[in-house]
């Protein structure tokens, strides 16, 4: 005989709302809207043909049946989580993070010691990749990519915004001053193979779409392009979030105050099966604290 099982999304919504005593708090933990929590719980109540919560003005209270069901459901989910760790090739202390190489090198790795200090029980394993999320072969607990984009099996939270401006070393600027955009004709423009239109878009915004530089140097990774700028090879289109420390330390300068090209936000993508995982929630919250955005759905 097939097992009589309720919808699992409804179970997760009910367990979180019952444990936290709030639909709003459950929505925050699971990364969905409060309306979605209410809808899932109504679905479960209709499925069970029994009320699980009493709606009292702005608060909800578990019914006696809800209390009993929460106890059983909570224990069942805990057993599933324990069995997953026990019989799967999963170390519950390891958090697998997949992020682009340049972002990892210039933003994440320099800050990761702060997360480890706050959460010494979580061991972070960083893997670098630019592969689209739906093409990843290896499992990851948190994927960092641009966005926000919608994926059916993931919830998304933006945590860092940025713009792009020309950057160069102060030594280069001393040799070849940049008072106006047209002065770029005397410089080498640094390009990244995966972002071929950055300079074209910026020059168009600056009103000089047909400007031709002395030379163009194309590199296959963004971090190489930024390193070339640090070494005084030429002028790069710098993502402000990833060169902020270099600008603060004076290793790079921005010769022009604008225009600033708007870039996609950095977002965390977490599999919906890990919506209540304390490691992923801690890491995503930490990213939002260190970034310049509050997470949103």
Automatic annotation (TrEMBL):
One GO molecular-function entry: DNA-binding transcription factor activity
Gene Ontology BP terms: DNA-templated transcription
Pfam families for the chain: HTH_1, LysR_substrate
Domain (HTH lysR-type): residue spans on this chain: 6-63
Keywords attached to this entry: DNA-binding, Transcription, Transcription regulation
CDD domains (UniProt xref): PBP2_GcdR_TrpI_HvrB_AmpR_like
Domain of life: Bacteria
Protein task: NodD regulates the expression of the nodABCFE genes which encode other nodulation proteins. NodD is also a negative regulator of its own expression. Binds flavonoids as inducers.
Family: Belongs to the LysR transcriptional regulatory family.
Protein name as it appears in the record: LysR family transcriptional regulator
Organism: Bradyrhizobium arachidis
């Amino acid at each position: 005989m097939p097992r009589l099982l309720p919808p699992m999304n409804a179970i997760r919504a009910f367990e979180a709302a019952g444990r936290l005593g709030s639909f709003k708090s459950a929505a925050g933990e699971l990364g969905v809207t409060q309306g979605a929590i209410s809808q899932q719980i109504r679905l479960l109540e209709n499925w069970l043909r029994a009320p699980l919560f009493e709606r009292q003005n702005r608060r909800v209270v578990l019914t006696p049946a809800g209390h009993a069901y929460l106890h059983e459901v909570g224990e069942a989910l805990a057993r599933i989580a324990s069995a997953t760790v026990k019989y799967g090739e999963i170390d519950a202390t390891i958090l697998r993070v997949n992020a682009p190489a340049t972002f990892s090198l210039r933003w994440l790795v320099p800050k990761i010691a702060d997360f480890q200090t706050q959460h010494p029980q979580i061991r972070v394993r960083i893997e670098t990749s630019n592969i689209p999320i739906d093409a990843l072969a290896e499992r990851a607990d948190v994927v960092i990519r641009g966005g926000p984009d919608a994926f059916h099996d993931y919830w998304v939270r933006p945590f860092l915004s940025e713009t792009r401006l020309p950057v160069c070393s102060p030594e280069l600027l001393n040799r070849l001053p940049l008072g106006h955009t047209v002065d770029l004709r005397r410089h080498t423009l640094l390009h990244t193979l995966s972002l071929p239109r950055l300079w074209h878009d910026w020059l168009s915004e600056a009103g000089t779409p047909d400007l031709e530089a002395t030379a163009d140097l194309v590199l296959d990774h963004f971090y190489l392009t930024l390193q070339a700028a640090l070494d005084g090879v030429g002028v790069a289109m710098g993502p402000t979030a990833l060169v902020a420390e270099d600008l603060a330390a004076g290793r790079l300068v921005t010769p022009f105050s604008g225009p600033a090209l708007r870039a996609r936000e950095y977002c965390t993508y977490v599999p919906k099966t890990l919506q209540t995982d304390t490691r992923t929630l801690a890491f995503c919250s930490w990213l939002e604290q260190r970034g310049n955005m509050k997470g949103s759905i």
